Amino acid sequence: MRTFLDLVGDRTAVRRFVGSAVVAILLRAGVLLLLFPLLSALFSGFPADAWPWLGALIAAVVANWWAEQRLFAAGYGIGFDLLTGVERRIRERLEQLPPGWFDARRRAEVQRTLTTAGQELCTSFAYVVTPTVSAIGASFAVGVGLLLVDPLLGAVALAGSLVVAIALLVGGRLLRASDASFAAASNEAGSRIVEFSRSQRLLRASGRAGSAESELGTALQRQRRAAVRLLGWTVPGNLLFTVAYQLMLLAVAATTVHLFLDGALDAAEVVALLVVLVRFLEPFVTLSELAPAVELLQAALRRIRTFFDAEVLAEPSSSAARDLSAPAVELRGVRFAYPGGPDVLAGIDLVVPRGSTTAVVGPSGSGKSTLLDLVTRVADVDEGTVLVDGVDVRQLRLDDLLGGVAMVHQDVYLFDGTLRENVAAGRPGATEDELRAACAAAQLDGVVERLPDGWDSRVGEDGARLSGGERQRVSIARAILRRAPLLLLDEATSALDVLTEQGLVSTLERRADDSTVLVVAHRLSTIARADQIAFLEDGRIVECGTLDELLAAGGRFADYWRLREQAAGWSLV
């Protein structure tokens, strides 16, 4: 219910639902309890005494019908509010989470939750929550009412209700454990399906295009076994409920017979009481039928709760004022480690002057891409400070920080839309001339001419219809179109041929007159054009300076440069 209250935006609707539930429960209990005096009078020696009770019962039934309609209308209202708003609320929450939070398992959970949460919660509130609240409340209210008929009978009925409720909870716990296993297996299968579809070229090249013997096949088998276990664990839960229900029925019947033998009840009252008790037990059957749906609903709510309980990047209410005379980027004593792992960066100090190009160079795994991630707050430092325009990035709102940054990743992600839409994502309000100029600067115009529908050609999911180099050019065009004062390049030209790369580097250099470029690079042509080179190794900057200074020093960078020069002349024979 706490999760529901977090997701329902209209608290007036919640209060209306609670009020309607209380009224409907009391009236429903009143209808059942009125059967006792009505039937007692009807089977007594004076049947005419039943007329007033019959009138009261008819009035209670009409009032109960009206209250039930109000209750279900309120439930539907909350359900439709969830349908229209839950995806938006979850999406807003996801936007606040650090990108590092989204591992393979959580990506599958996010996809499942965003595509099903609204519909699940809408239908569940109307068809599961409302009947469950009504059944539980009515049973309790009738049990309290039976205390007025006879304290012993009422106590036995309430105790029996407690036993049945415990049986339902235990059965639900058994089902919940199996559902968690099934959910984990389903999430793994979902992520493996995505992985399998994306790696088709590699799998076919290695002769492993089939899914049966792959990780996907293993994941699907695990999912099937989990589904069988999930179905199997419903049997013990149902059996436990049946035993508890029968014991309660036996206890209530035995108590009624005991009261009759002791003379506390006459025959007419016993007949009336048996009818009332049968109706009293009906909500428990309803609860048993709803139990699997309740467990599935709880599983959906737990998935949603994981997003709301995850730690988000803290943002100030307003951004601090920037100092445009300060370096564009500065790192002071930065240390960072991923959860549970060793330090990726340790004691990093780096100044990136405004209007310059700084190349970050080093062996694989030295922390180069992580350094760029800290600048854009993909994650926050464990120690030290990252400053942009003289301001700690944690004192800037994310919109303000990222609004002045354009980034090109080595692994480019493109939307399954048109080429125009993917480039225009850099600045949706750009004019047609600006769009074409950015594409020309990124040498993308040849790609536009090659595609059958030109600008309106769809690139496929993740840009599957484009080559790796073409996808990188789309990403570079998108970055150029942003006209951001800070440009971050993470191996942005790794999939391009040498001539294309040289043209793009020249274009980016011309842009450096009014922007700052921080580039992670391996190619010598990119490194040689940088105003400053920082050599990163084992999470530390071991050397920093111009190309001539570092070569003259004869240190680690000089060794790296020499090896790269030698590798440039290698050939396969």
Describe what this molecule looks like in 3D.
This protein has about 575 residues and is of the alpha/beta class. The protein has a domain of about 300 residues: Up-down Bundle (ABC transporter transmembrane region fold). Helices cover about 65% and strands about 10% of the residues. The chain has 19 helices and 10 strands. Strands 6-7-8-3-9-10 form a 6-stranded mixed beta sheet, with helices on both faces. A hairpin with a 2-residue loop joins strand 4 and strand 5. The longest helix is centred in the first third of the chain and has 48 residues. Keywords: ATP-binding, Membrane, Nucleotide-binding, Transmembrane, Transmembrane helix.
Measured distance between first and last alpha carbons: 69 Å
CATH superfamily of the domain at 2-309: ABC transporter type 1, transmembrane domain
Percent of residues in helical segments? 55-70%
Structural class: alpha/beta
The level-1 CATH class of the domain at 2-309: Mainly Alpha
Just name the CATH architecture of the domain at 2-309.
Up-down Bundle
Poorly predicted ranges? none
Strand elements, count: 10
Largest sheet: 6 strands, mixed
Order of helices and strands: HHHHHHHHHEEEHEEHEHHHHEHEHEEHH
Q: How large is the count of helical segments?
A: 19
Mean pLDDT: 80
What gyration radius follows from the Cα positions, in whole Å?
A: 34 Å
Strand order of the biggest β-sheet: 6-7-8-3-9-10
Q: Please state the overall shape, judged from the principal axes of the Cα atoms.
A: elongated
CATH topology of the domain at 2-309: ABC transporter transmembrane region fold
